[in-house]
Design goal:
Length: 403
């Protein structure tokens, strides 16, 4: 796949991405995929730390290509007065600022929301922190893994007789990035489509992004006082559910989230007797015998290979999937048909594969128009082309380490 040149749904929206690492930048990338112009503002000579985050190949940080596509890199020292002045010039011509400095940092530098709103009253600022802009923890350093633990998510994962398990990748950051994109679009819709629409500041926190998904814990504890303990898979929702080992030694996951789905599975296992047995005929009864029911399914799964099971259960309408490695994903025809993995040019590695654009729009599909930029790639384009600085002025800014 070569970089595409298409008009996107967000064409004409300009976003200043002041953020670093994953959560907020990922949100900006999602918006960039659908046509927004994203100007990534980075510290001169340093850049976003994500540029140098592992894994690596031939000295290149491999995460950068996927998370920084469709962005323009402008180096700008926001701590210097001239840097702040240039930022305000950009804000005048932009719709959104996305930032994830620790609470109060931009205010200390004189470029917080109130200051930037003075130069652009219609500005939307999306602010990402670990614990939010308010409350007793507002000024704490916020990173994804501690925020995941604080949200209640980590407590649920692992085995009861072992320590809790954190996600093996930056799950909370990516989930928060989706909230960043959602919040930006909601604020833009209000500003541009409602009669009383105005710009506003949006407060997004890492821990709240995860906590919002745990409503089943909240009401259960409120009404019953029950504290859900950790388990290695789905529990407390439906039975059977979990990981099962096939005849050929492959792991699959199978769930029956409704009695109708269990009915299909029972027929597939030739255990229609379970549908009238009072011990198993409803989900509430099966949940009381979770290990027993899972054991019945496990014994049956062991009689079939992964491929046999997949074909058979697909025909029966029972939701099941092999547990894929990234190698499995690369070889799967569904991923290929959906263009979930695409190849783009890289300035040093030649070509790299990165995730494709999701979701799929019928009229205004997202696209990968630009590869992830090198540090300061677009300084001249932005400073000269957008703001009107001369070559001499740009050279002076560079000499003063402002850009």
């Amino acid at each position: 796949m070569t970089v595409q040149q298409k008009r996107g749904a967000l064409d004409g929206i300009r976003i200043l991405d002041l953020s670093t690492v994953i959560a907020a930048p990922f949100g900006a990338t999602l918006l960039g995929d659908f046509g927004a112009e994203v100007i990534k503002v980075e510290m001169p000579g340093v850049g976003d730390p994500l540029r140098n985050l592992g894994p690596y190949y031939e000295g290149e940080g491999l995460r950068w290509s996927g998370i920084a596509r469709n962005k323009k890199s402008l180096t700008l020292d926001l701590r210097q007065e001239k840097g702040k002045e240039i930022l305000k010039e950009l804000v005048k011509q932009s719709d959104v600022v996305i930032e994830n400095f620790r609470t109060g940092t931009l205010e200390k530098w004189g470029i917080g929301y109130e200051a930037l709103k003075e130069v652009n009253p219609e500005l939307i600022m999306v602010r990402v922190t670990g614990y939010g802009q308010t409350g007793p923890y507002a000024h704490k350093a916020g990173f994804g893994t501690p925020a995941t633990a604080f949200s209640g998510f980590t407590y649920l994962h692992g085995y009861p007789d072992r320590p809790p398990i954190s996600p093996s990748f930056s799950l909370t950051d990516y989930v928060t990035g989706i909230y960043v994109a959602f919040a930006t679009m909601t604020a833009l819709y209000y500003r541009d489509c409602q009669e009383d629409g105005v710009g506003q500041s949006v407060d997004v926190s890492l821990y709240e992004s995860m906590f919002r998904m745990l409503e089943f814990l909240v009401t259960d504890y409120d009404q019953t006082g029950h504290i859900k303990e950790r388990s290695p898979g789905l529990s407390g929702h439906s039975a059977p559910a979990g990981n099962f080992l096939t005849k050929d030694g492959s792991w699959i996951i199978l769930v029956t989230s409704s009695d109708k789905t269990f009915e299909r599975l029972a027929h597939a296992m030739e255990r229609a007797d379970m549908l009238t047995d009072p011990r198993y005929h409803t989900n509430s009864e099966r949940l009381q015998r979770f290990d027993e029911v899972n054991g019945i399914v496990a014994d049956w799964v062991k009689t079939k290979t992964k491929d046999e099971l997949q074909t058979y259960l697909d025909e029966c309408g029972v939701p099941m999937s092999p547990i894929y490695s990234i190698e499995d994903i690369f070889n799967d025809p569904q991923y290929k048909a959906r263009e979930n993995i695409v190849e783009v040019k890289h300035p040093r590695l030649g070509k790299v594969k990165i995730p494709g654009v999701v979701p799929k729009f019928s009229e205004t599909p997202g696209s990968i128009r630009d590869i992830a930029p090198d540090l300061g790639d677009h300084n001249d384009e932005i400073l000269h082309g957008l703001l009107g600085y001369s070559e001499e002025e740009i050279a002076e800014l560079k000499a003063q380490n402002i850009i």
